[in-house]
Prior knowledge:
By secondary structure, the protein is an all-alpha fold. The protein has two helices and no strands. The radius of gyration is 12 Å and the shape is elongated. The relative contact order is 0.12. It comes from Photorhabdus bodei.
Amino acid sequence: xxxxxxxxxxxxxxxxxxxxxxxxxxxxxxxxxxxxxxxxxxxx
Length: 44
């Protein structure tokens, strides 16, 4: 996924606040949370 430098830095700052060490792991966690909020059980 292509991200602008500024956007990537914003995401990495939030990732670190949440205690994650990888941007990919943080994004997956956020997406799973969103699925649950929509009543969808994440698979995998």
